[in-house]
Amino acid sequence: MAESHMFQNAQGFVMNQPQINQTQVSQAEKRGLQILLEASLPTAAYDSSEHPRNCHPGTRIQYIDQIVNWGIEGPDPGHRIFWLKGPAGVGKSAIAQSCADEFATRKRLAAAFFFSRPNQRDDPQRLFTSISYQWASKRKPYAEILKSTIHDDPTIVDKELRHQFHHLFVSPLQELADKGGDITERVVIIDGLDECAGMAAQRTIVQIVAASIRDNTTPFIWLICSRLEPHLVATFKSPPISAVTHQEELTVSRAIDNEIAQYLTDELAKIGEEYDIPVPWPCERDMGTLINLSGGLFIYANTIVRFIGDNDSLGPEDQLGAVIALATSVTKGSSEHPLSELDFFYQLIMQRVPAKIIQTVQWILLATSAADVLTNVKCNRQLLALSPSQFRAACRTLHSVMKVEEDNIIFYHASFMDFMQDPRRSRQFCIWGDSALALRTELTQRLQAVCNDPDIEPYCALHICY
């Protein structure tokens, strides 16, 4: 059984005055949905403050319309999974977000979950609990069944994924069906499956969903978006899963240059207006350079816009000049890596960080990758012994790739931290590998100091040290 490993390899294990029953009682006293909420990830929902940006108006319409029609009119017989696949940076998350908004407007969205590895939204145990909670907020009869179910067994939220799915969906939906009533909110969106922690968990999620379709135990249809990771390609190729799946691939293509141009034109016009820059700006030649530099990748165009619009720079014209200068040094196809052109841009961003704070910036990034809690601004700052102004000054230099909200550090895309952790790509700026040994040693010493410092926020010290 899935739970049999709980005390595996335990030695000298003694329980004095066990408190299991007392714990279960105190948990059961909570409202069922409160327990479910605590086991979910609200920040992964489509309408959270951390959700990805929608597609720019007038772009990616072909894919959005195709997916919305699939969800509204009903999929082809048996194809109740729509797998939107493609490399990093082609706009899968933006398409998923746009579709989620459209389905929500039409009252067809059951739930949406956006995985994000750099933003610590990667726990597979919180996927089905989050989907269940979101749907319960829309379906009162379902919510009432869940309250009773979780009250009877609060440990449901901690069970293995297959057991979770059965207790949170299969059994309650059977009870709901027995009572009658039509279910209109049937679309579930899972974005960034490849950013879920663990390849085995990723495969298991797909297998569970496919089995529920094959056995007709739930009414849902599933939009799943991910990169073309080999283990996922193999999973979706297996006959039991391919039989219930429609697949659509997004590729890196210059065929969308017109959409990239539309996005850049509209967004840079806003920046130009804000700074009262005489039009036309950018000039036609520079705009052509930006389009070529983007190379069919929306993430590149997004990053260019944020870089040029950086409020803490010498101004948009200076920033644009840096991008144009970069373009002359970029040789298309010079690397096997699919994001090699974007790497040049990430190098530019890091090169423009002032030398006196580059180590602080590296520390902040390394800390966020070391522990989930360190994406919390206060915990990160306390670990590194930075004042609020020092911390924000360092983070402002990375405006193009991340933002700092009141409580959290939020990365726009996983590709930046992938870049920073790969010494072949980020070179002297790498925060991982042999080149960062001294940096990691210093951070380890700081971690030890934090764990013994009574002035550090208890929540931060507890989670950092344990």
Automatic annotation (TrEMBL):
It holds the Pfam family NPHP3_N. Residues 78-227 form the Nephrocystin 3-like N-terminal domain. Transmembrane segments: none annotated. Keywords: Repeat. The keyword Repeat applies. The keyword Repeat applies. This is Nephrocystin 3-like N-terminal domain-containing protein.
